[in-house]
Amino acid sequence: MKEVWTSVASLLGAFAFFQSVLLAVFPAELRQAAAKLLHRAFNLFSNYCYFYITEIDGVSTNELYGAVQLYLSSSASVSASHLSLSRPLNSSAFTFSLSNNDRLLDSFSGAAAVWEHAVTHRPAPSFSWRPLPDEKRGFTLCIRKKDKHIFLPHYLDHIMDVAADIRRRNQDRLLYTNSRGGAMDALGHPWESVPFKHPSTFDTLAMDPIRKNEIMADLRDFAAGESFYRKTGRAWKRGYLLYGPPGTGKSSMIAAMANFLGYDIYDLELTEVHTNSELRKLLMKTTSKSIIVIEDIDCSVSFTNRCGHPLPPSPQPSAADDPPSSASAKSLTLSGLLNFTDGLWSCCGSERIFVFTTNHVDKLDPALLRSGRMDMHIFMSYCSFPALKILLRNYLGLEEGDLAARGEYDGLLRELEDLVEATKITPADVSEVLIKNRRYDERTAMAQLLEVMKARAAARCGSAVAADEFGRKEAEEEEEQEKRALDSPKEESTEELDEKQRRKKTGEAEDGGAGEGCLS
Ligand SMILES: Nc1ncnc2c1ncn2[C@@H]1O[C@H](COP(=O)(O)OP(=O)(O)OP(=O)(O)O)[C@@H](O)[C@H]1O
Ligand SMILES: [Mg+2]
């Protein structure tokens, strides 16, 4: 490596020396011609080749320049002596980069490469569509001619991948929204973004630990599954349907997924999308390594089927199978949405996760639930005892070990365990009680939670008792009526009364029906 470095340095030195001699002695035109000639001769006999990566390529910004800068920042911090330090907007980390006109050695598959960051003054242009920086910046990559096949294009792909990774690690997640409707910004983007700072993680998510581990393993496999998806001929994407009552952690789960994988979130507001083609455009403008979310899919839009008619609210034969019509082009249809997640268009870009959430899974069109459409259906349930222990740890700092070791919580904990499932309390409600009582000691907070649970259980019981009471009163009234009827036999024949008695014994309704009017 050192040997390459010395020979490159001496060659560049010799080249610079000849250029300066030419500059001093000959007129400009002659100098230019001679320099060109010298350059060609130098290239012809040299064992090295050079690649120039300029910051601005024509009128557009060269993506590779930024990627090289980031890539070198990962090795620059250890080997170079002059470094530029920066902290990009929205980033939570500092990045090192090569200083102006400094050089750095790198290696790839056993072959050496020398990078130089060249900065020269840019002469003011006579005309330009946009203001250009005063300095012309670029990287020069020098490699041995015989190593060209090793470097191209694999080294450049490697640089792009590493840079994307660093960018993701350094940058906070972004949350995109299509709240502008179909309108695009100046750069033609339909999405608006803000830094995504949701602190929810799988560690703080209160749910059954076994189910949680299954989901985490599934996500891990997905993120590392590029070759699997290629080998099996499947698009590299995955769909999750999160369903359950409000406040059970569906949105928190999405945030935890994004934080776990380091993906951005695209929060798709379906009410802002008017046609299938608008939906497709939005999809095309999403980046890979992202989660595309449609919350409350059952009520975010009233879909029209392919004929343009509104879909019935309850499960019906699949709307995706309806015959095509020109009306669908002008509206948002369920089949348009299914194509968005499933069809050919869904594969533009890769490594994307689709998440739909709903409070009413029974209201969804069967086409959405059909096997293979959403890969995993995750039920977010009311608080269970293992989930409760996670919330006690989150809000009161009580680890599992603390709860087991300190006998003082024994009674309280057992009562909570007995009540929690029956109370049907959501993690959101438990969190609320624990937040309210966080300034007191743990025992008091737990006791307060127990009180709330008992009150809820009593209320639930109360409504059940009320239902029983209502039933009892009805029966009493019925008996009363029968008594009255028996007291006045003239009004009804004995056959009729016998029939009534028989019905009463068998529990059959008066009209002979199946008891539709009964309180169940
Ligand atoms: N499983 C959970 N683990 C930890 N915290 C939770 C959980 N469920 C709810 N919470 C707490 O309750 C709040 C509301 O939860 P979240 O918004 O995730 O519920 P949701 O299921 O998306 O509700 P909705 O159906 O109304 O959208 C969260 O900010 C979080 O603090
Ligand atoms: Mg939610």
Automatic annotation (TrEMBL):
UniProt catalytic activity: ATP + H2O = ADP + phosphate + H(+)
The protein's required cofactors: Mg(2+)
Alphabetized InterPro entries for the sequence: AAA+_ATPase, AAA_N_dom, At3g28540-like_C, ATPase_AAA_core, Mitochondrial_chaperone_BCS1, P-loop_NTPase
Stored Pfam families: AAA, AAA_assoc, AAA_lid_At3g28540
CDD domains with a match to the protein in the record: RecA-like_BCS1
Residues in AAA+ ATPase domain copies: 236-384
Basic and acidic residues bias locations: 469-492
Coiled coil: none
GO biological process: proteolysis; response to stress
GO molecular function: ATP binding; ATP hydrolysis activity; peptidase activity
SUPFAM superfamilies, sorted: P-loop containing nucleoside triphosphate hydrolases
Homology family: Belongs to the AAA ATPase family. BCS1 subfamily.
Full protein name: 26S protease regulatory subunit 6B like
Species of provenance: Apostasia shenzhenica
Gene: RPT3
